[in-house]
Design a protein that fits this description.
This protein is an alpha+beta fold. The chain contains four helices and five strands; from the N terminus they run H-E-E-E-E-H-H-E-H. A five-stranded antiparallel β-sheet has the order 4-3-2-1-5. The longest helix has about 35 residues. It comes from Poecilia latipinna (sailfin molly).
């Protein structure tokens, strides 16, 4: 069984990964594009996330609109939503199980169950990190493939958004 300091370090890295996964899931900046009209007054930036689409106008107005229908969403967006929610749920369950198995807690102190509990918590954090990694990597691939698609109009091409870049950070924490 690992020392208490190593268990605490792993647990807090898992919690940091969980917080990053929550932020990544909620941010509407998974795909972004900028439209520049004939003058600066018509500049608009569009962002798409898992839950909403947003537009930022050069006049300072920031508008967001939630997606109206779950069934009308593309399958890749539905899968990304599901995987990120599963990643968050896995992190919550992993943290609960890991807390029960850590040496610094009083749950089942003289039991042989503590070691498998903390190991299960670590595996849960690992699964959460892998679910997040699959989602942000998949989105990165989709954005890059669409960007270099010669048949797609230039106004419909998106770039990788901030949330995808941020999504790689919790992966490194959860898979430590």
């Amino acid at each position: 069984m690992a020392s208490m300091a190593v268990q605490l370090l792993g647990f807090f890295l898992g919690l940091l990964g969980f917080a990053g996964t929550i932020v990544t899931t909620l941010l509407p900046h998974w795909r972004s594009t900028a439209y520049m009209g004939s003058n600066i007054m018509t500049a608009t930036a569009y962002m798409k996330g898992l839950w909403m689409e947003c537009a930022w106008h050069s006049t300072g107005i920031y508008q967001c609109e939630l997606y109206r229908s779950l069934l009308a969403l593309p399958p890749d967006l539905q899968a990304a939503r599901a995987l990120m929610v599963l990643s968050c749920i896995s992190s919550v369950l992993a943290s609960l199980v890991a807390v029960m198995g850590m040496k610094c807690t009083h749950f089942a102190q003289r039991s042989v169950v503590k070691s498998p509990l903390v190991l299960s918590g670590g595996v849960g954090f690992l699964c959460a990190g892998l679910l997040c990694l699959v989602t942000v990597s998949w989105t990165t691939n989709d954005v890059i493939m669409d960007f270099y698609d010669p048949f797609l109009l230039s106004g419909m091409k998106y770039e990788i958004g901030l949330a995808v870049y941020l999504g790689y950070i919790p992966v490194s924490f959860c898979t430590e």
